[in-house]
């Protein structure tokens, strides 16, 4: 070993063990070494007893998986490259030709798009059900139904469903219940303990999250998680995860690990700010309706109260307004463009407040009866001072008038 390149690559020095600091070290790998051929042949990639290949896990990804289990009250976790990849991984693991998946009509849009695209092309059918009418869900479950998606609150319109009743219906029909828990983030309610008594007697089977939102907290990472409590169900999803090659990058994992300790503080602060601003909006004549599950009168408020009230800060940082129909689309666009602190952009959970105008007609099978007519604008509240955000809304409303 005299050549410099060889000596640099096979360097004999290792630093002392036992380094302890607030953040864990980052482990990066595609290749993982084995001590000998026997170890290579016998090492099991399916559990966390060791390491085989970067795609199958590193100390860094194992660490985040275990912390996310703690956050959501689950026992197993898989990391995927985005929240949407988590949804797709679950669907591809559990559905085959001839099966049907049920999705709430107010679900995260790309979940519906996946059903209408690849799933349909592979002979997997879907139906959209009314998230606010458990009887509609019960009636749509058939012998073909293999998976029911749940979302609380619904995307964009933020109706809060009777999640407990929906899960009971899935149990009765022995259908897998998968929750998109991005809004709740494991903080608003306990997806594996919906009765809140610690018994776990009423629980979803799967909870997926876009870690992109609150766990990342920075608007700079895309990642998703799939948390379960049932080893066989986890393994089924994990085998598909492996076959699809859904790995996550070490630096992204590290970023989420760095943000996770403050998630409860951030979620609580953003929740409080969103409630204050939603209340202020409710008093403004330009808005025909304000949608926020913690506001009395908002669709599903009573279900939100029943499930989330006992927790500190249980309502995320989102609310939507329906701008009165007397304002045309050009005026609504002018309102959004006039905002200075609120940036135009998708996603949420980061420090900067965001706004998106939506075309609800194109997103739902019919205009929901519980929504006022008007143009929907969604706000995601960041970490700026509430008074400044309120002043920003007020000046933009002037621009709209
Ligand atoms: C953002 C979001 C997702 C998708 O997350 P990405 O990481 O952007 O793919 C899924 N579900 C919900 C409810 C979301 O808000």
From TrEMBL:
GO terms for biological process: L-cysteine catabolic process to pyruvate; transsulfuration. The modification N6-(pyridoxal phosphate)lysine is found at residue 213. The keyword Magnesium does not apply. The keyword Lyase applies. Its cofactor is pyridoxal 5'-phosphate. Keywords: Lyase, Pyridoxal phosphate. It comes from the Bacteria. It catalyses: L,L-cystathionine + H2O = L-homocysteine + pyruvate + NH4(+). GO terms for molecular function: cysteine-S-conjugate beta-lyase activity; pyridoxal phosphate binding. Its EC number is 4.4.1.8. It is an enzyme of class 4 (lyase). Belongs to the trans-sulfuration enzymes family. This is Cystathionine beta-lyase. It comes from Rhodoferax sediminis. The lineage of its organism: Bacteria, Pseudomonadati, Pseudomonadota, Betaproteobacteria, Burkholderiales.
